[in-house]
Amino acid sequence: MSIRLKLTIIFLAISSIPLILVSALTYTNFKSSLEANRLAQLRDLSVFRADRIEAYFAGLKADVEIAQGFYTIQKNLPVMTRLAGHPGNPEFVTAKKMLDGQLRHMRSVSAMTDIMLVNPEGNVVYSIEPRHYRKDLSHGLDAERRAFTQGKTRVCFSDIYFDKAEDYRFEMLVAAPAADLSGAFAGVIVFEVDMTPVYKLIQDVTGLGSTGEVLVGIKTGNQVEFLNPLRHDPKAALIRKATIGDASGFPIQQAVQGRSGVGLAIDYRGKQVIAAWRYIPSMNWGLVAKIDTREAFADVINLRNLVLMILIIVFALSGIMAFSIAQSISRPIKRLSEGAAEIGSGKLDIKLGIDQKDEIGRLSRSFEKMTRDLKAITASRDELNKEIDERKKAEGALLKTTDELSRSNRDLEQFAYVASHDLQEPLRAVAGFMGLLKNQYHDAMDATAKEYIDFAAEGAERMQTLIHDLLAYSRVGTKGGTFGPLRMKDAFDNAIKNFKTIIDETGASVTCGELPMVNADASQMTQLLQNLIGNAIKFHGPKKPEITINAELKGGQWVLSVADNGIGIEPQYFERIFLIFQRLHGRAQYKGTGIGLAVCKRIVERHGGSIWVESKPGQGSIFYFTLSDGGNNR
Ligand code: ADP
After folding, report:
1. Ligand 1 within 6 A of CB of 621
2. 468 ligand 1 Cβ < 6 A
């Protein structure tokens, strides 16, 4: 899972969870309080309506009881019964007039539509409405029959009935026994009551929205008969029935069975409603006030929808915000990782372009600095590698040249050696025969021939010296001995031996200081000292030659010096004299081949040292050479 997705989910969870909790709490609180509120409203409404209905019928009952006490009725009901069918009789007329006077007044102030007086047989002997006069209630409608029968003994209310015969309306009869002046049973007082105002009272839907209603019913056997026209079924009065025990019409079933309550239930239409139900004892009715749940809780549903909508909007906004925050955090990290990958692939001039002021910004700047440093290091490493390569190449070339040089040197040495070695033999022969020629034909030759022979012999001798020296020069490289511990004093002593005669002749003094132990080729060291001492004696000046050999340890190596008081050397020849065949004087002045110092240089170089001269013309020369320490001098 990417960092961006993780951060988005975390931010979303942080922002949404409290909101969801608050919304859910608000919603459930509101829902339960609204439910309680609605149920309380319905209960209050049902109580109020039931009370009004009871009050209404209590009023009717009071009216009929008042009528029972009327003197006019007690006196005139027996007259009307007796003279029924004799309307012309003056007594009848008087009686009717009295009754009209009182009862019409009563009707006008009360709720009944007609007041009838019925004789003990069930015939109407008096009515305000002429259409009821002489009607036989004992053979009339159920309600009429029952009102008459029960009314003989007590105040009673008939069932509601639909009066098709006369006014096409719902009516009810209130009946009560009537007595004569002596208190004996004289008949029944019957009020005809129009149900319209009662229905108005019941059916008032104020405060019940578009689906709510109030209804009344009565228990008939195991059924409930609806007594009023219903809001959703105007023809229901006295026709629609609900069976007790069925799921539908639960509230009215409860009410007619004498129970009161509130709650959610299924109504007569099979719809979910909230209802309050009550029993009206005086009428034996059940009353229900109800409203469809959908409408009652519309506010809850609206709230739920609103909360859901707010949640969705907030969720979407939080999502966008969370995404953009996550993006702003993850983008530089992604850029950093891409940068790292680019560096990994060798691209070092990357610019991340993250100029935030936070930790990530600092990290990216450090990252860029690291890349710049890396680039500088890589560049200098590349340069170094290049230089190393060039040097290696140069070294290779040098090595090759050195190889070639030393090979050609070796070849040259070999050639010089072979040539000088092989030349010695014929030269010896030439010199030998020259000697023989001179000795055996001495007398036969004239002076010029002798002189020529002498020239030839001298030339041969010179050539022998030259070849000897050349051979010595070439032998330094090709026929050198092994190195070993050597006292330089021994080499010096050996070298001196050969100069005994010449030292004696010239009166030269050759002395030496303390000489060290070195690691060297013994015969070459002797030859080196011989050459240097020989030159020092040979190139003496007017003074007797004084030659001193010394040694000094400098920087880990020995510097040996051979100093003389001879003719000295001009500084411009300091280098040249060490080259082969280079001489500063003619042969007539000083004998020599010009090879001696070249041999010295080769010997010293073979021992890893160097040779040089310091001199002033006329004041003598000092030849220096270096040798590595033999290690046994202390
Ligand atoms: P050679 O002695 O055969 O001439 P070298 O190679 O020994 O050849 O010397 C070369 C030259 O250096 C000499 O000819 C001489 O001119 C000069 N030289 C060498 N040694 C000395 C010295 N001790 N004093 C003055 N000049 C010297």
Report:
1. yes
2. no
